[in-house]
């Protein structure tokens, strides 16, 4: 299994340990489909870039994982604020750890959160969407 | 019987009328009959780095029908009989739809108001709305 998918799988497993967490799915992109119920947490791959390199064919890859919370907002702007922050904090604390069980080559990560309640319009205007990007650092071996 | 033409009620000849529930935020819900529903269109849109879906719709609410509107939580008419300037639940101010109000259609689908067009003759509101989260069309 690829390191990237190991990371996605491990992130999903780690999120599943959060009490009362909504349904978690791994998707190619953060897309809500009609069969979904909200709230939902979508784990999806982001960029994969090369970090540091070292002698001995050692290379560091940086894998970005997007975690997106989608829930009903329905233009109610003063309710559910505290609840979402609780969930975001729990997700952040679960994911911002140096090691990731299930992805042995990971040794560190960085985490960047988007605004808690993204500004949305059009067909998205009744959803509360909140995302974060976790970049995992993985030490691997080059072929040559 | 003498037939009279009353063009202020010409909307009644349409056959796709329905009764909706309309609730401005912070106010009581009212049910309004003889609302004309225009086709709903479901589609996807991007927001917050993700893709979600929703349905856009338009309702035509005729101001004549406010005389038949019922306040949902106490079953009283919006306008008391014989007192056509007395609005029971709005502190004597005229009812008007507002942005972000909630509409419930006859099938129980919920929408939130985006745009209100008062019309040139101010006889009706054309109210465009978006379906609530994770509700499509049926």
Return Rg of chain A in Å.
Answer: 17 Å
Q: Order of helices and strands of chain A, N to C?
A: HEEEHEE
Shape of chain B: globular
CATH architecture of chain B, by name, is Beta Barrel
Please state roughly what percent of the residues of chain A sit in beta strands, choosing from under 5%, 5-15%, 15-25%, 25-35%, 35-45% or over 45%: 35-45%
Mean pLDDT, all residues of chain B: 83
The major beta sheet of chain A can be summarized as:
5 strands, mixed
Largest sheet of chain B: 6 strands, antiparallel, barrel
Listing every helix as H and every strand as E from the N terminus to the C terminus, the arrangement of chain B reads: EEEEEEEE
Helix residue percentage of chain B: under 10%
Task: Summarize the amount of helix of chain A as a percent range.
Answer: 10-25%
Number of spatially distinct domains of chain B:
1
- Largest binding interface between chains: A-B, 34 and 26 residues
Number of separate helices of chain A = 2
**Which structural class do you get from the secondary structure elements of chain A?**
alpha+beta
